[in-house]
Amino acid sequence: MKEDWIYRRGDLYLVDLGAPIGSKQGGVRPVVVLQNDTGNFYAPTITVAPLTSKINKKKRLPTHYLLRKAKGLERPSTVLAEQIDTCDKTSVIRYLGKVSRGQMRGIDEAVRVQLGYYIPEQIMGSRHRSRKGGETDG
Q1: pTM of the entire predicted model
Q2: Parent domain of 116
């Protein structure tokens, strides 16, 4: 039973994310597990980031991390940290492999950007622009 598998942070799985809605990734695709191993053990769900192999069609964002090579992936893929999702363990189809520690550090940086824990320098200069309603940062 898939719910009894041992899920680890950094594992790659093939998962059915359901029907895509708008720009949200969906369908059967590889994902990387982002959730901590304690949550992976106890929860009936896992927190993941989807991957896409269409690396030349997607605009490169600070929330992307390119996996040129990873155990279990057939081709280079981009981790889409801006599309973090929680999926039920029953939607997992099969184990693919695992990213390296160095790759996980790169993925973590993309996740920090997505969650606002880290803002790249090129974006910092644009943060003081006026927002709707006339509010500004600062």
Answers
A1: 0.82
A2: 2-124
